[in-house]
Amino acid sequence: MFPSTTTALAPSANRPRAEAGTASGPRTLPGRRGGSPMMSVDTCRLFRAEFPALADRASAVRRMVTGHLHEWRLDALLDCAVLATNELFANAVEHGSAGPADTVTITVTLENRGHELKVEVADGSPVVPRFREAAPTAESGRGLAIVDGLASDWGTEPPDPGSVGKKVWFTLPLEHLGSLS
């Protein structure tokens, strides 16, 4: 099988933290139940991973998103983020790839701008997804409706420079973090 290619751009013990708007280093907020500190919303975090465009890679995508949100102390967003990412990944595999040699790139970003989590799923097809209403008996066709119901916003944008295809993204608000300061 194809291994996934992962580029962890999030801070780690072996790499300096990328702080947005602060030169004094990372700041944390106390955890709700006396656990480890919660990451401050003024910290910029980014994680990107590339997966083969294969349906059986969906579980690895879900584990990746779960692991990083857990590490970033954003467990309250897990269910919505994982389900919406899973739907966009499934769409990218089914509609945005020509075959198993294609890849799908998942980018998870947490920034202080707008206090939101943003997830992007990039594939090689320039065809923009269409929101449609599935028949009650249809077995598919509800992916974007699910994303729309879970996310605060979603949309599409052109690929990164030098790439082909498109990016489909969604955001989730981090409002719950404000009550922890």
Number of strands: 8
Strand order of the largest sheet: 1-4-5-6-8-7
Provide the β-strand percentage band. Answer: 25-35%
Dominant shape: globular
Order of helices and strands: EEEEHHEEHEEH
SS-based class: alpha+beta
Distance between the termini: 46 Å
Number of helices: 4
Most strands sheet: 6 strands, antiparallel
Helix content: 10-25%
Gyration radius from CA atoms, angstroms: 17 Å
Question: Spans of 5+ residues with little confidence (pLDDT < 50)?
Answer: 1-41
Give the topology, please.
Layout (H helix, E strand, L loop, with lengths): L4 E4 L19 E2 L8 E2 L5 E8 L5 H14 L6 H18 L7 E9 L4 E8 L19 H8 L2 E5 L8 E8 L1 H4 L3
Antiparallel strand pairs: 1-4, 2-3, 4-5, 5-6, 6-8, 7-8
Helix pairs in contact: 1-2, 2-3
Describe this structure in words.
By secondary structure, the protein is of the alpha+beta class. The protein is 24% helix and 25% strand. It has four helices and eight strands.
Which labels suit this protein?
181 residues, 6-stranded antiparallel β-sheet, two-stranded antiparallel ribbon, 4 helices, globular, disordered N terminus
Give a short overview.
This protein is of the alpha+beta class and 181 residues long. The chain is built from 4 helices and 8 strands.
